[in-house]
Each structure stands twice: as C-alpha cells, then as structure tokens.
Amino acid sequence: MIRVENLVKEFQVFDRREGLLGAVCDLFHRQTRAVRAVDGIGFHVKPGEMVGYIGPNGAGKSTTLKVLTGILVPTSGTVEVGGFVPWKERRRYVATIGAVFGQRTGLWWDLAVAESLTLLAEIYGVPKDIYRKRLAFFDELLGIGAYLRTPVRKLSLGERMRCDLAAALIHEPKILFLDEPTIGLDVVAKAAVRSFLKEANKRLGTTMILTTHDLVDIEEICPRVMIIDHGRLLYDGALAEIRRRHDRAARIIVDFAQAVAPGDLVAFSDDETPAWEPLGANRFRAQVERRRVPALMRELLARFPVTDLSVAPTPIEEIIRKIYLEGKERR
User: Fold this and answer.
1) What residues contact residue 3 under an 8 Å CB cut-off, 6+ apart?
2) How far apart are CA 311 and CA 296, in angstroms?
3) Region of residue 161 (left: phi > 0; alpha: psi -120 to 50; beta: else)
4) What does the alpha-carbon distance between residue 82 and residue 33 come to, in Å, rounded to a whole number?
5) Residues 176-189 pLDDT 10s
6) Pairing of strands 249-256, 283-289
7) What average pLDDT does this structure show over 84-102?
8) Which domains are assigned to the chain?
9) Residue 330: is its pLDDT beyond 70?
10) Three-point CA angle 57, 247, 43, nearest 5°
C-alpha cells in the first residue's frame, strides 16, 4: 500500500542577523543553510496495517506525513501510496486517502457539523444511502449524533476531534494519516478515539499511519512501530520486539506494614541489590533484572511485613527515551 525508498526532504532556512546593521545586510544578502528534515528514510506498509510513527520533536514525523499526503514535494527519493505518486497525481490521489491533523480541522468553522459532513460527502461523490449508513456507523462508535447541529467553532477539542475523524473517513479511504490525533484530549476522549480507530481498521480494513507523543496510543493501537530521530529511521518492527531487545528489567513497588529504612533494604541482599527509591510512607520502588525478581520477592516477603507488592514492566516511555539517547550517542 505504501512504498518509501531513500526519502530525503531538505529546507532552506534563513539565518537572520542581529541588530539594525544585520537587518540592513539581510536586505541585500541573506544567509541561508540547508536543513535535512528527512534523511534517507525507507519503509513499506501492507494493506490494513496500523503503524505508529514516533520520535521526538523535530525528528521529521510531520514532514514525512506531508510528503505522503502530497502536501510537500521531496528533495529526492521514491514514494508510492496506493499506486499514486502523491505530489504528481493529487486530484485523483486525495480521493483515496484521509488525513487528520490534531491542530487543524477539516470541517468548516461556521457551519454545523452535519452541513460540513454533507458537503464533504458531495465533494467525494458518496451516494446518499451510503452516506447515511456511514453516519450511523460514526454515531455508533463516536457518538457524534449529539453534535451534528452544532457549529464547529462551538465544539470542544474532544468533540471536534471525533467529528474530524468522521470527516476523514466519510468517503471510506484506503489509507488514513493521523498526526497527533489525541493531542490535548482528556482521558475519555482519548479512549473514544483509540476505540474508534481500532474498530474502523477492523471493519473497513483502513491502512493507518499514526504519529503521536502519547505512547499509550501506540501500545493500544499499533502492532508495528517505526522510530525516527533527526530524519533517520532508528527502528522498524513490532512493539513487543522493542521490549525484548531493550528491556531486561522489571519494576517492583512494595508497601510495608511499618516503617522501613532504605538502609535495611540494601543490607538484606547481595552486591546486586537495586537502588530503592522511596515513594511515600512505607512505599518503595526498585528496578531489577527480570531473572532476579522471584528471589527478591521471596526475600522481601520473608524478612519484612509486606501489605502489597506489584511487579510491572518498564514503562514504554522510558524504553523509547533510551533508544533516542542511544541514537544521539551514535551520531
């Protein structure tokens, strides 16, 4: 469905000089430099895949999506999406895709939601009976029926995002590009968006590429993840494989029935005793290798009055941060 090979996108950046004299000099001779936002990226996406595309700010995520949607023309490289070269065949191409950019709406600001959706259906040539069925589908999963007569400008961010998702899928595109679709949303709205995307992928078979800084989105929605930093692809594969490669530790949180000094926790074990971090009254946390978890739990329960003990994997945010740091060290 998507084929990207050796994609490069450079921008010419204007370096403004300081002061009045600098401003006068800039009028006659501008200093520019080339910034490579995307640097030789390549990947393939199969029909129906849900792919997370993540990286720190300025990594090149949004630039890649803008090339894939045909908004930007790349400096070099090959891009084919659904059989189209996005920036060369825009009129036919955009009829086959949907796009949601978290900071912008695809609806008309002063029109009621229903009017915007009807207008989009007319633009894409969606028959009225199919349009009604799709509207019922969106209402079932997103609950947009309550907002249809409301002007877009009066919607909350979460309500508007639900309607934007419906607008992006009103013509049942083969591919949906999502750039930060849950940014700024509350917990309830985020859960609704995630549930809808999974169900849309299941029922419609829509291929989706999602960029986000909320890694819970990735864990819940995307079996495959691509990690980008400074325009280069650092990883492309299953999220579970990231844990297997980069996370050999587990996090233990323990609550004691009475006060325990950190020194007591250090003294009871061997030289590999982890550093215990106090979290509050009688609660401590430690990061340990998974192979040592059973022995450590036995020792804790045998030597101290424990009221609660939990073991969890390292949060995905910490693992991804570690990958970013390793990427910086290699540069």
Assistant:
1) 44, 78, 79, 80, 81
2) 11
3) alpha
4) 34
5) 999 888 888 888 88
6) antiparallel
7) 89
8) 2-10+37-243 (3.40.50.300), 249-313 (3.30.70.120)
9) no
10) 50
